[in-house]
């Protein structure tokens, strides 16, 4: 009898020395099955062999499990598929069979909100993607889309597992399919913390936001050696596909971090602005920042020379709750600034021309950057604030031949199709086609404000005078021409270069007191909070890509 384990407490009585009357001592027994379970799990959770983990550390990288721990709330991660194994047996893989197949999948909470997470483990077969590895990721993505929670991928991989041939390519195909299918359904975030090469780069490229870490992350379709063989160009990893290359030149990367911990902190901050899925609103935050806080800075805009550059970030900081602004794509197309703020506690996406760079003119990259962000905001019910200070489109042969017509059209398309609340504030200049493009009233802006200092016209006064009065200027003596130009420009400015003619036509709803801009914007977004537009009766529009 004494050998029997109590099935409820998991203990058994230890035999007492004969004749002793004390209470029998109870000993906790670990059953064989539990022992085996724990051994298997411990081995699987350890990841790759110690020397591979050591090599990972030497490169300054965290392990796949440590990365998840940085991201999720403590103790919240629940793994799925830990015991799924590599199935391939060719080219020596049989001897390297591993549980987990080089990727950890599961879910946990980030700042208290659920997210599905996968983290590739470079210490196991170089994090390469084989059949099981792909199955784990696609199952996770399907579950996340069904449950309507965001997907966060942590990528550190040698790419398609060479030993598994087309099976691994097919695995990527299945992931790409889901990246596209669930785009606009749940937010998808990619964190690149190692190599990401070949076609593998297209999964992150299909997601909403890409994070990279300085010195650790590399993305390219063909590596330096192939580039050299094919084109003769010599280039190192960092120049070809490092974080700053993709943040400032290609636009693939939205956020750059100085270290891995810094990267996960930034991901959490981004998540705090996002809804869980397209059916929900972004989370509201309590704020003590008064909605009627006055902004003196905006009055000063009217006093400075309209050609003087300034960073529009300052205006965004002053407008937003607690002066907080999460900028997206900070290093790319700096002539336009996009990101998230809160106004009166509600998340708002900002699109703002930035006169500090290329005078804030629109060009190919700025159009692409803003259009993509607008489409994200629209998919996820985030209202749009547009701050306008734009002299026009950036001129030049390179822009025309590069397709500013096609790329600029993306911005028009994205604004026009966006059905979330859209509020526009013209700060200073708004000229020509660029005025129309920046969420003008007749292109679907819900409420369009202007500061008194704004100039809204077909073009700037100087340019207009050269075209309207070219004969008169030519016929005037050389020494008198400048005075004539100035006089005509003033006449033009007085008539057109103000917001009043536009307001008289109803294309500006209100010219507002500058110091009250925050109050007016918060009030307007509250008014529009219930805005709903019935869906269009079409499969997809044909955005000019
Ligand atoms: C199988 C791979 C692998 C891969 C790395 N490993 N990449 N195994 N398939 N794609 C293995 C290595 O053999 C090694 O195994 C271990 O991972 C660690 O790799 P190292 O080379 O020792 O690491 P490191 O020096 O840091 O170099 C990392 C690397 C390099 C730059 C990623 O491994 C590399 O160039 N790998 C190949 C990259 C590649 O060409 N992938 C295919 C891309 S095409 P051992 O047993 O020695 O520890 C692609 C197509 C996708 O992905 C298409 C989608 C449509």
Give a short overview.
The chain is α/β, with parallel strands linked by helices.
Your description of this structure?
The protein has helices at 32-45, 50-58, 64-71, 131-147, 166-181, 202-206, 224-231, 237-241, 243-250, 260-271, 297-301, 313-319, 364-379, 397-402, 404-417, 432-437, 461-468, 470-475, 478-496, 500-505, 517-528, and strands spanning 11-14, 25-28, 78-79, 103-110, 113-120, 151-155, 188-192, 195-197, 209-213, 218-220, 255-257, 326-328, 336-343, 346-353, 384-390, 422-431, 447-450, 455-457, 510-511. With 545 residues, it is α/β, with parallel strands linked by helices. Strands 12, 13, 14, 15, 16, 17, 18 and 19 form an eight-stranded mixed β-sheet that branches. The chain has a seven-stranded mixed β-sheet with strand order 3-4-5-6-7-9-11, sandwiched between helices. Strand 5, helix 4 and strand 6 form a beta-alpha-beta unit. The termini are far apart. The mean pLDDT is 93. Hexanoyl-coenzyme A is lined by residues 125-126, 128, 158-163, 169, 172, 195, 197-200.
